[in-house]
Write a structure and sequence with these properties.
The chain has helices spanning 2-23, 82-88, and strands spanning 25-39, 48-60, 65-79, 95-109, 115-126, 144-156, 159-168, 182-193. The chain is mainly beta. The protein has a single domain (24-193), classed as Porin, CATH 2.40.160. The chain has an eight-stranded antiparallel beta barrel with strand order 1-2-3-4-5-6-7-8. It is elongated and about 50 Å long.
Length: 194
């Protein structure tokens, strides 16, 4: 009896695994630009440009719905204001370099075969956290940034063109509570699917 239950369980598992593959799993590489701004009086009220590169996996769950997990590296230099140096008592710093490994998990809804509407959460892991801006060695930025993404992706054969907006939900200031820092990012890019 136990052997029959194990056999039926394996059969169902491999059957559903085959259905997922029938819907389609595609691996891709991606590259693009990040247009990022940190809110708060310590930072310039303008967007700064950077880049991102990484990989994505498209998992079709049907003709209309899919999941797209991604992992990518992102780097942006954010301009600061004079208040940044005055409030935190250190030499003038004109910009701060932020490097993240971002992990979004997006729900894709495809109203047709060329367009995918995407939304989902993203967690960013700060990679240059040991590069401090304070003389006493205290870290200025928290180690992670939780965001919500929404955007559109155009599917042209094996090429994906995408545009997304990410709004940061996490407080990034790890120095004190004098100024609230949150991120806003536009992602524009291109992916090649295999």
């Amino acid at each position: 009896m136990k052997r029959n239950i194990v056999f039926i369980t394996l059969l169902l598992a491999f059957g559903s695994y085959g259905q997922v593959f029938a819907q389609g799993i595609h691996l891709g590489v991606k590259v693009g630009t990040d247009i990022k701004k940190l809110t708060g009086t310590s930072f310039s009220d303008q967007f700064s440009y950077g880049y991102h590169l990484g990989g994505q996996l498209e998992i079709g769950l049907g003709k209309v719905v899919g999941i797209q997990p991604e992992v990518y590296f992102s780097q942006v230099n954010i301009d600061t204001t004079d208040k940044f140096s005055q409030v935190y008592q250190f030499n003038k710093i004109s910009s701060v370099k932020l490097q993240y490994i971002n992990i979004p998990i997006l729900l894709s809804i495809k109203p047709n075969k060329f367009v995918a509407l995407q939304a989902g959460p993203q967690y960013g892991i700060l990679m240059n956290k040991h590069n401090t801006v304070l003389e006493n060695g205290k870290e200025a930025f928290k180690n992670g940034d939780f965001s919500m993404l929404a955007g559109i992706q155009l599917d042209i054969s094996k090429i994906r063109l995408y545009g997304r907006y990410a709004v940061g939900l996490s407080e990034l200031n790890d120095i004190d509570n004098q100024d609230k820092w949150k991120s806003q990012t536009f992602h524009l890019g291109l992916a090649l699917i295999f």
